[in-house]
Specification:
alpha+beta, Glutaredoxin, 5 helices, 52% helix, GRX_PICOT-like
Length: 106
């Protein structure tokens, strides 16, 4: 399967997907760490993560797929939400919790 198809499948098959450096337990960059913390604080449980450091093909091609150059990248319901800064802004406004609650009750 081509890497862009693999990315598309991951994004479509999981309501919340975070492409990050490292894992939620062992984030390998501050932005990924903060994004995981914010997701948890907003009520996300059992969200799907992909460690881009373990999959160089995904790391190289995700920016083409999403048209977003940096990591982490958060997708909710198949839609790119953005990176760390946007996730933090959505959390501070309460919007992230609303989006997560909507996804998790479905």
């Amino acid at each position: 399967m081509a890497v862009l198809d693999r990315i598309k499948t991951e994004v479509e098959n999981h309501p919340i997907v975070l492409f990050m450096k490292g894992t939620p337990q062992f984030p390998m960059c501050g932005f990924s760490s903060r994004t995981v913390e914010v997701l948890k604080a907003a009520g996300a449980v059992g969200f799907h993560t992909i460690n881009v450091l373990e999959d160089p093909e995904i790391r190289a091609n995700l920016p083409r797929f999403s048209n977003w150059p940096t990591f982490p990248q958060l997708f909710i319901h198949g839609e790119l939400i953005g990176g760390c800064d946007i996730t933090l802004e959505l959390h501070e406004s309460g919007e992230l919790a609303r989006m997560i609650a909507e996804v998790q009750k479905a």
